[in-house]
Amino acid sequence: MNTYDKNDAKSIEDYAQQLIGHTFREVESWDAPSQVQEDEASYGNKSRKGGLGNLIEEKFFGYKVNSDERADFPEAGVELKVSPFEKTQKGALRAGERLVLTMISYEKAIESSLYQSHLWNKCKLILLIYYLRDKALPNNLDYRIHFAQLFTPPDEDLKIIESDYKTIADKVAAGRAHELSESDTMYLGACTKGATAEKSTVPQAYYAPDIKARKRAFCYKNSYMTYVLNTYIAPGKEEYEKIITDSNELKEKTFEEVILSRINKYAGKTDKELCRIFDREYNNNKAQWIDLTYRMLGIKSNKAEEFAKAQIVVKAIRLEENGHMRENSPLPALKFKDLVSEAWEDSELFTYFDETKFLFTVYRKVGEEYVLKGAQIWNMPYDDLNTTVKKGWENIRNVVKEGIEFYKTETGKGLVIKNNLPKKNDNEIIHIRPHTQQTYYVFEDGEVFGKGRLSDSDELPDGRRMTKQSFWLNNEYIVSQLEDKLKK
DNA sequence: GCATGATCATGC
DNA sequence: GCATGATCATGC
Questions:
Q1: Alpha-carbon Rg of chain A, whole angstroms?
Q2: How long is the CA A410 to C1' C9 vector, in angstroms?
Q3: Nucleotide closest to A318 measured between CA and C1'
Q4: Distance from residue A241's CA to nucleotide B7's C1', rounded to whole Å
Q5: Which residues, 6 or more positions from A431, have their beta carbon under 8 angstroms from its beta carbon?
Q6: Quick one: which of A106, A123, A253, A329 has the most CB atoms within 10 Å?
Q7: Nearest to A129 by CA among A109, A104, A146, A107
Q8: Residue A427 in contact with residue A406, Cβ under 8 Å?
Q9: Predicted local distance difference test score (pLDDT) of residue A40
Q10: What is the torsion angle, in degrees rounded to the nearest 10, for the CA atoms of residue A476, residue A481, residue A486 and residue A488?
Q11: How far apart are the first and last CA of chain A?
Q12: What is the pLDDT of residues A246-273, one digit of tens each?
């Protein structure tokens, strides 16, 4: 085995590439290149987070793990990260986790700019070691390393990361760390640290000693790392379009300001006029209002690179003439068995709102057409998520856990299956509703009900099946979150 | 008028 | 074939 020059990033990368194709178990059996020889039998322990990273540091690079504010290879300025990826059903890669960079300290003043911060040491040059997480394997040590590559965010991303840093630092410095959420920012996030909220909530000693906040760390978001994987590490055929093609645009305005100004420029036009401007068929169905949003942003497809990296979801909000929003807004599908097995902070629903930003484009009906009012970038306030949504989620989960009761009801259109799940009015923010093509149930006695097929249904914890459901955002809640000027 | 269960339409 | 945005039909 070759060795490496700790002063030279390229040499460290070359050395690391010997890992490619090997499992952690194999690496563990190699001779460490230096003094670290003590046996760490727990590297592969699934409950020990970071075990695999420690193995690489100690058994492969031969240095002792530390929690230094400097980079792991200080002379070369390289930070080592060992992280999992997964393959989606379509074969694209997805980061298994956000990339945690360094803790946010509440004990001392926070550096006001990224380039002067200790974070910069940890995020400017990273040696990414990516392994495939195959949950079918019994032991983490059997996971295999696929990539080992240096990574530095490109300039255009650094502009956004710089602005993300400022957003987080400003909130901390204002004594508002307790209101932080990963979805406050685009690529660089402030993620929670620690096993549970109870154990990991501490006073904001420096800026607001009387107010406790979750421990948090700077991270590159999962969505950002997924993009990095598919673009720099293992380029695939995923095709995204950049909204911002000239990064000089970010010198004077933030990303959000650019987005909003591009859309607001068209405020006052109707959906019909916009369809004409962008040469789109005006047909009032399909995803017309979302398509128009992307056209106003200046891209031809509905795949915006920046939105993928920052996990921004476009939602078209249409208000009726009286200001009411007629329909509720669906969220991604729900899996009952996950719902009952996950803790709140690991749940699909929490994670979705904690990490997702929304771009609302708001229209209001006038006569037969909808007039564009403008746009708003929104993420769910921390309190709403952790009180109201959490409560709604728990109530739904409890019914699913205990076994949903179904009632066949005869209606004018034939039999309909009613249930005892919480209803829309039981929670101010979310509710649960069917969301698929057709109805499909399988009851306890094996009876099948509905015009759909198996794939229209989802298995309940007790083995029965129910028509696929989604969480939905209550229309009134969305309206309540809109800026006044967009509602008038 | 609106909640609820059901379903349509399209693009990937 | 499925996920997701959009919408419908009934009954209270």
A1: 25
A2: 14
A3: C6
A4: 33
A5: A328, A392, A422, A423, A424, A471, A472, A474
A6: A123
A7: A146
A8: no
A9: 47
A10: 50
A11: 69
A12: 989 998 999 999 999 999 999 999 999 9
